[in-house]
Amino acid sequence: MNIRNLTYILYTEWLKVRNYRTFWLLAGLYTLTLLLLLFSLQGILNNVTVNINTKSPLPIPEYPVYSFPGVWQNLTYIAGFLKMFPAFLIIILITNEFTFTTYKQQIISGSRRMEFLTAKTLMVAILSVGIALLIGISGMIAGLLQQSPDYEAIVSRKLIFLASHALELFTYLMFASILAFLFRRAGITIIVFLLYSFIIERILVFRLPDAVGRFLPLEACSNLVPLPNSALMKIFGVSFSEYTSVADAGICFVWAMIFYLLIYWLLRKRDL
Question: Global pTM?
Answer without folding.
Answer: 0.93
